[in-house]
Amino acid sequence: MSAVLEIDLEAIVENWRALAARHSAPTAGVIKADAYGLGAAQVAPKLLAAGCEHFFTAHLHEALAVRPLLPGVLLAVLNGIEPGEAAAFSEQNITPVLGSLREIALWRAEAARRARVLPAIVHIDTGMARLGLSAPELAALREDAALLAGLRVDYVMTHLVSADTPESALNPRQAAAFFAAARQFPGAKTSFANSSGLFLGPAFRSDLARPGAALYGLNPTPGRENPMRRAVRLTAPILQIHEVPPGGTVGYGGSWTAARPSRIATLGVGYADGYHRSLSNRATARFDGNPVPLVGRVSMDLTTFDVTDTPAMPGDLLELIGPGHAADALGAEAGTNGYEILTSLGRRYRRRYLGA
């Protein structure tokens, strides 16, 4: 018996439609990290069939893998272009997001080599300090138009620092800086809001939104009710139940001690499956909708839960992620977020795609 990961493709499509309606403008599908761990090969065609015409990955190899599934639409790589990659970008009509003068030079050289204009997205850093053109690099582009020779800048973009904190002063500061810088690229469209940014109001609208996490059911409005439809359910069957007397310990290191006669259920899920070791003695699962605590350490292949107060038996299912316990909640128990939970989901789960 193995754990089952159910992925609701129709829910992902509904989430995209809801976000696109909120944005009232073209809305991309961010499918990086294998569609946040849920399977880009399954997710991307469903979004395409629903009308999505703009897609983003993080790396070139991710884009190359899905390009045959996404003919004739914008497919862009957020992490930009590296030496030796330009030919693959141009041959497969994949658009690099250019975040430095070095990357611009690489793409400009490819345009010259092919003697044709190549599309580009320019990334401007407005406060994240990860990727994107700095103020001096923007100034260099203003002073020398030849730096963009052979390139057609279709979009300029930036990335919000604190979109999930609506009251943050960084949000309006970034909006002002971004739209001011974007004027340097006449004719180019803008791409601004991520999942949480779509809930910040009209000042954060642009020509192309880039939601990722919200597509997959993660909450883009922390602290408020999740407006997105749940897309993931993870269940695992109980392999064995052990009767542990008072004073008995469970798992490596004996980190949990029974205070009463206890029934301990073992599941075939562990940190090799992306069920984080940090969940040890902290997480909860659900049996018939009721919480049951994880006791002892999460090991590589096995995890143990206290089912003393339930009628659970071997073969019964515990729900690790689902209606009663969202990926965001499991992330909080792990001391991380729902993003890391989804993108860590392992390959040993039996995957079942609903709406395929």
Assembly annotation: single chain
Radius of gyration: 23 Å
What class would the helix/strand composition place it in? Answer: alpha/beta
Strand order of the largest sheet: 2-3-4-5-6-7-8
What is the CATH topology of the largest domain? TIM Barrel
Describe the structure.
By secondary structure, this protein is of the alpha/beta class. The chain has two domains: 9-216, Alanine racemase (TIM Barrel), CATH 3.20.20; 232-354, Beta Barrel (Lyase, Ornithine Decarboxylase, Chain A, domain 1). The protein has ten helices and 17 strands. The chain has helices at residues 9-23, 32-36, 40-50, 60-66, 86-91, 101-114, 135-143, 170-182, 327-334, 338-344, and strands at residues 4-8, 29-30, 54-57, 74-77, 95-98, 118-123, 151-157, 189-191, 232-244, 249-250, 256-257, 262-267, 284-287, 290-293, 303-306, 317-321, 350-354. The chain has a seven-stranded parallel β-sheet with strand order 2-3-4-5-6-7-8. Helix 1 crosses helix 3 (40-50). The model has no long low-confidence stretch (mean pLDDT 97).
Core attributes:
single chain; 356 residues; alpha/beta; seven-stranded parallel beta sheet; 10 helices
Give the helix/strand layout:
Layout: E1 4-8, H1 9-23, E2 29-30, H2 32-36, H3 40-50, E3 54-57, H4 60-66, E4 74-77, H5 86-91, E5 95-98, H6 101-114, E6 118-123, H7 135-143, E7 151-157, H8 170-182, E8 189-191, E9 232-244, E10 249-250, E11 256-257, E12 262-267, E13 284-287, E14 290-293, E15 303-306, E16 317-321, H9 327-334, H10 338-344, E17 350-354
Parallel strand pairs: 1-17, 2-3, 3-4, 4-5, 5-6, 6-7, 7-8
Antiparallel strand pairs: 1-9, 9-12, 9-16, 10-11, 12-15, 13-14
Helix pairs in contact: 1-3, 9-10
